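Support reply, case 0932

Customer input (verbatim):
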Amino acid sequence: MKHRLWTAGLSAIASLLLVPASATVALAQSSQQADQDKSASAEHKPLSAPRSAIKWSREKLAEMDGTIAVLEQDASNARAEARPKAQAALDSLRQTRDAYRADMQHAAGQAETWSDSQVASAQRSLDTRWRAFETQRDTYLSATQADIATRRAVLDARVQAWEQSIEALRRDAARLNASARGDIDTRIAALQSQIDEAKATNARLQDASTKSWDLVKKNSAKANQLFRDTYVSIRKSIAEALEADEHEEKKEER
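Our regenerated output:
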């Protein structure tokens, strides 16, 4: 009896030792892939609305740079008595722009690991800096009694920044498959229509009076908010579509 049990035990051990090496490798690879999937799931954060807004903040730097370039050109032609105030306002604009850039770069670098609430907090800080920039811009325009051409150029700097944002969206949308791209292209076209309308509105600015400028600023602010909301929505949709495509490709590879 003992001999039969001993023989059966040896047979069982032998059967385990004879498992094909390929099966062992497959099991190991499956386990490794599962660990990788868990790790990726834990580390990856989808591009939420707050994260999309951070990308929009990056695009806003183009408007800041464009505005400062316009005002620097204007300051070189300012009246002697207005130059000290003009230079002081420009210095404030540059400092705010530089602080905005530093905060934006930090937020963009940390957005993948931060929670949505942390990203949203960073975005609020960026929005505060942006409002300060707009106030300093208006201080410059008032101090120098900027003419209609300068004010139009400031408005055009915003439109040019919008155009750069749309080009960035189009480049990313080009990576999508045809089924996902149709809706995105339609929404981008709507943004382009908004740009065309803004250009026409800017061209209708007839005088540099405070009343006229305040009205234009109000309309421009509304248009900017609409553009931002649409941009953030499109950016999020593109990211989700790209993520879905990548997921499908990985499934096919397996």
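We compared this against your earlier run and they match. Two observations from our side: Residues 210-253 form the longest helix (44 residues). Confidence is low (pLDDT under 50) at residues 1-46. Please reopen the case if you see a mismatch on your end.
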